[in-house]
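Schema walk-through. Below, the input block comes first and the output block second. Nothing else is stored per chain. Lengths vary across the set, and this one has 577 residues.
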Amino acid sequence: MFSRFTAVVCRSHRRLFLLSSAGTWSSAWPQQGAMQTAVVRCMPGEPKLTISFCLDGSHKHMLRDQDEPVGKVLTRIGHNLTKNQGKGKKKKRGEEPSERAQPAAEVKLLFGEEPVQESMVNSEAWRDGTVLCVGEVRYAVLRNAPTFTSAELPRSLMAGFPVCPKLQLEFGNMEDCEFTWGSRNWVEVGSGRVFVPSNEDIGSRLQLRCLPKDATRNGLVKELQSEGAIEAGPGTCTFDTRHLFTQQLMQWPELRVVSYNILADVYAQTELSKTVLYPYCAPYALELDYRINLIRKELSGYNADLICLQEVDKGVFEDSLIPAMDAFGFDGVFRIKEKQHEGLATFYRRTRFHLKSSHDVVLSEALGSDSLHSDLLQNLSSKPDLKEKVLQRSTSLQVSLLQDLLQPERCLCVANTHLYWHPTGGNVRLVQMGVALTHLGHVISTVSPGAALVFCGDFNSTPHSGVCELLTHSSVPQSHSDWFSSGLDHHCPMHLVSPFPPLLSACGTPPYTNYVGGFQGCLDYIYIQPDHMKVTQVIPLPSHEEVTTYEALPSVSHPSDHISLVCDLHWSPQNNQ
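--- output ---
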């Protein structure tokens, strides 16, 4: 998904970019005799260290034993320089071959202008304050300097949509690092970790200059250029109007919550999806590179504090969502679905919440092995076919206990799930929700008493389903039609009871949260405990005209077949833990 480029790793032979009066970056070279930089990575417990520097336009990256005498390294550097100089000289016609070998370049390692003893081992010799001298060139040694071990730009770039590089930083602080963006032959167009190209940038490649830093030191610059040019965006998207309601971050005691099934790429790219489920969607709009641009922009514009996502591909989480959400100020956790390539992701704003603990479960495994669910399992045993059907499902429940950093005595128990999908699986979903609620009740009572439950997800259940009745009424009777959803041969009616008082659907029951060619209905929910939190605002869903502009979802203006739910919540004053 990301293009890769060789990073420039040496100040002595990298191009320095200076902002000229015309507003462009011009190239300059360090003057002869200026102190350059050599970077040494040396970690306790590792047998090797690395030494990186540039000499005569060539990058040197040496891997040496930590316990090797430094004199051997200095000798190797000198011999390599002599060999490379010899390769670069061509013998003139008629010139006799030289009988004398080129003298080895003088290579020294100094500390305070005094030579370091050549018998000293590498791990002790290469430290801050030492200077590597190779002939007339001098290098200030930086040991374990701030370093971008990788830096990549997304392959697909669109005007009006945020670009977030994928970065891995060692020995530095991402908040201290500097980022300078360029376009149109290195004209500076922006700074900061996130950049939004304008229409003026369409057709140009995007450049990025990354300077790693910590509190006291600068590392070596990495410079990137995008593989492709910036393209035009799709125009108005279904979420643009919604962003008008979420322009500001929430202030305590309020917080904003998002729940969203983002449509896993593993499902969007099937032949069934392209020809049967979403035949109305332009093929390019089903491509992940295109959809992830829309997803990043949509999520960033909500200025949320808590985001629960379903149908998240593992690769999308690692390569696209983590870089973007980290840049937007979020930390996140991922729970992959057993034997699948997609799962659940929960993101929380790091200035607002701290992750105390995680208590994820596979619902079928919990049902089969945890004594908490022994009564439910016993009831299912009377219908072996239904029991087997439930136990075969890989549905997971992601549970994150979050501490509110602004009021540390308050905690959230954030649950995120995606229940079984089949239209006749109402009975399976009822059992799954029964297991989920019992597990959540146990977690709160034993780990964080008084924590407020926020339960998000794609429940694949309409408002009149048994699942929603269990949540909103705390029980579901034996007579509910969902117990008979798979036919009389698989029915297993029981009186299912929730450990929680009635919960509230924070966004109500909109006409639909899933709109495809063959189905429209409300399947997604954010449930809260009304004695812990109140709803202060529900962000309006896109209008029906917006949803159906391209017939149905997904479309060129909407990245998923689901619509995100967004609401603002307010801590209740009586929730004094």
